Amino acid sequence: MALRTSLWRASAFCVLTACGTVVTAAQSPTSSAALTAATPARSLIAAAERHYKRGEEAFRNGQFEEAGRCFAEARAIFDQAPAEVRAEQEVQAYVFELQGRIELLRTGLRQAALSASDVGSYRDELAALDVSQISARPTAELNMSNFDFKFTVTAQVYQFINFYTTGRGRITMERGLIRSGRYRDMAERIFAEEGVPKDLIWLAQVESVWQPRALSYAKARGIWQFIPSTGLRFGLRQDAYMDERVAPEASTRAAARYLKFLYNYFAGDWLLAMAAYNCGERNVERAIERCGYADFWELHQRGLLPRETQNYVPAILAVIAIAKNQKQYGFNVTPDPPMRYDTFQLDTSTSLAVAADLLHIPLNELLALNPELHRPLAPAGFSLKIPVGARERFAAAYAALSPQDRLGVPQSSAPTVAETRPVAQPRYTTRNARTTGRRYRTRY
Fold first, then answer.
1. What is the largest CA-CA distance in the chain?
2. DSSP helix/strand/coil, 373
3. Structure pTM?
4. Ramachandran bin of 392, using left for φ above 0, alpha for ψ from -120 to 50, beta for the remaining angles
C-alpha cells in the first residue's frame, strides 16, 4: 500500500509539472492576495480556494476520499450561492478553472493507478500466462448442447477451465460473474440484434473482466478493449468531449458488429473471428497463408499466432463453459443488478454538475451513468443517461434554464469544438478473403 501511494503521489506530481499547471498561492489568479476586495463573489472564491487547497494537500498525501470531500465542498459553495453572484463573470471563470485543476489531479491519479497495474485489462496478462503446467483433465465433460455456436473442445480449453476454477483465476472469474450482471441483458440483446451468438458476450470477461474504464498498455479501452483506430472504424466517437469506447452500450454494439464482420471475413468461423478480434484480421490471414488451413486449432498447434492469441481463444471458450454451468464448477454468486436508465438529448452544451442538481442526485452518480465523458461537460446533442423515471421532471427543469445557465461557465470560455460533430460512421467493408477467389483447405 505504501508503494502504491507513493506511485500515485509521484505520478500526480509529474503530470501537473509536465503540464506546467502546478498552481501555487503566488501564481494563482485566485490566490488570497488577489482576493482582498471584500465583494460577495471574491469572498466565495476565497472560501472555495481554501477547500481546494485542503483537498490538494489530502490528495498529495494519498487521502483520496478526504480530497474528494474537500473538492465537493469547494464546488458546493457556488451551488448554494445566490444566482446573481453565480452569474458574475469572475465567479464563472473561477469555477471553470477550479474544475480543470481538480480534473488534472484526477488524471494524475488515473495514470498512477495504471502504472501500478490497478487499472488495465485482464488480457494484458494473457501474453505471459503459461497454462502448460495446469492439468487438462476435465472435472466433467462439457455438454455442448446448450451452446449457441459449435466448437471443438481441446486440452487447452480444459486447462483454462481448471485455471478459472482454482487460485487467482477463480477470483478473477468470480469478480467477472458478479460485475457482468450490470451489462449482460444489454449485451445479449445487442448481440442478438447484430446476429452474433449470445454466448460470445463472455469475450468481455477475458478482455476487461467487464470493467468499462479498463485501459490496457496498448491503449485499448473499455469493456471490449477497442484500440483508437478500431474504435473509429466501427463508429465510436473519440474527441475532446468523450470516448465512446468507454460507453457500455455504444461499445457493445461496435464489438458485435466487429465480430460479425470478422465472422464473415473468415467464412463463418467464430474461433478465427475471436482470434482476429485479439490480434487483427491481417495477422490471422498471414498465419493461415503460412499454414494452408483455415482452422484455429491447427494454427495454435503450429505456433503461428501470437502467444496472447493462442491463450485468448481457449480462455474465452473456458469462460463461456463456466458461465453457462456455474454451479457445476462451484460458483454461487449473486450478479450485480442490471444498469437501468432513461436518456435525454441535450439541446446545448451542459454542465453535469447543473444536470445533477436538477436531478437531485450526486454528481458522481451521473458521471457513473455517463462514463464516456472526459469531464463533467456534455456537448450539444449528447444523449444524457439519467435515472429511470426522472425524464419528465428533468425535461421541465432543463427547459427553464438558459443556455448559459446550463453551461455554468462564461460563454467566451465555452468549448465549441465538435458540438455538432456527427458520430463517425463505420468504415468497414464486407471484403471476404474466402469469396474473392482465394481458397484455403479446411481441416475438420
1. 83
2. strand
3. 0.67
4. alpha
